[in-house]
Amino acid sequence: GANPEDSWSKVTFPCKGINLTVVGKCARCSMVDIDPSSGAKGKTLRALAEYRRCNGRINFGIFLSNEMDSSSSYEEKEVWLEEGD
User: Fold this and answer.
1) Tens digit of pLDDT for each residue in 25-55?
2) Could you give the CA distance from residue 49 to residue 37 in angstroms, rounded to a whole number?
3) Conformation bin of residue 39: beta by default, left when phi > 0, alpha when psi is -120 to 50
4) What is the pTM of this model?
5) Which of 40, 42, 43, 65 fits a 20 to 30 Å CA distance from 31?
6) Phi, psi of 57, deg, nearest 5
């Protein structure tokens, strides 16, 4: 089962002036599936591995990079995205 982001090459938020390029897949760390109070392993990664494993990694999510417009100067600023943007 593919997730929507598996086919993305870009993510754009026109209302915020943000253009992001997909630069790779994000592999999940096994620590996210361990209960910190008991140390017990969960079943989340096992379920993901059934359909998200690729080259020995369990991919879930994507890495994005800011795509700079040649007409704009680089300025670091904080931008908040909200559901619906």
Assistant:
1) 888 887 778 888 998 888 888 888 888 888 8
2) 24
3) left
4) 0.65
5) 65
6) -115, 145
